[in-house]
Amino acid sequence: MVEFKRFPSPDDLLILLTVARLGRFTAVADALETTHTTVSRRILALDKQLGGRTLERTPQGWELTELGRAAVGAAEGIEKSLSVLTSGIQDGVDAVSGVVRVSASDGFGALIATPALARLQGKHPLLRVELLSGTRRLSQNRSGVDIEVVPGSVDAGRAQTILLSDYTLRLYAGPEYVSKNGMPETVDALATHSFISYVESTLQVAELVQQHRTLTAKPADFQATSVFAQIEAVRANAGIGMLPAFMADGQPGLVRVLPKEVEQKVQFWAASRPESLRSPAVQAVVAAFLQETRARRQQLLPG
Question: What does CATH list as the number for 7-86?
Answer without folding.
Answer: 1.10.10.10
